[in-house]
Amino acid sequence: MRTEYKIFLGVALFLFGAAAVYGIYTGNVGHGGDGGESVAGSFEGGVEWVGTVALILSGLLCSMCGGFFWFVARRIDLRPEDREDGEIAEGAGELGFFSPGSYWPFGIALSAAIAGLGLVFWMWWLIAFGLVAVIFTACGMLFEYYSSTRQPAEH
Known about the structure:
Elements: H1 2-29, H2 49-75, H3 104-120, H4 124-142
């Protein structure tokens, strides 16, 4: 997990730096000595807030992911990929149980698409139907192996 948190925190630092540079640059374009017009020709000056806020929020999201991986990395032993002397063979073995064939992810995607379509056309009833369907299908996938005849094989 050490590699993961370093990557995410590095990307977060880059995004915060890019937000600062972007905010300063867009704040100075309309006020500089280049005639007053920007590249688009309609910008009157001042900071362009949409891009600046998007970069800041992206940096915060990467910081959250990096913080989570850092939190987990402190509590687990070093994995082979985290050590300099780690060998590929040390990471061999069973990784966990993965469903061999489930239709629930398709249902979740279809439900999310219905909710998104309702959001695009601002149909509250379609948004509500899609969100209820997302909750139903997510619960179906979560409890797929706790009910019915589909039980994972015992070892």
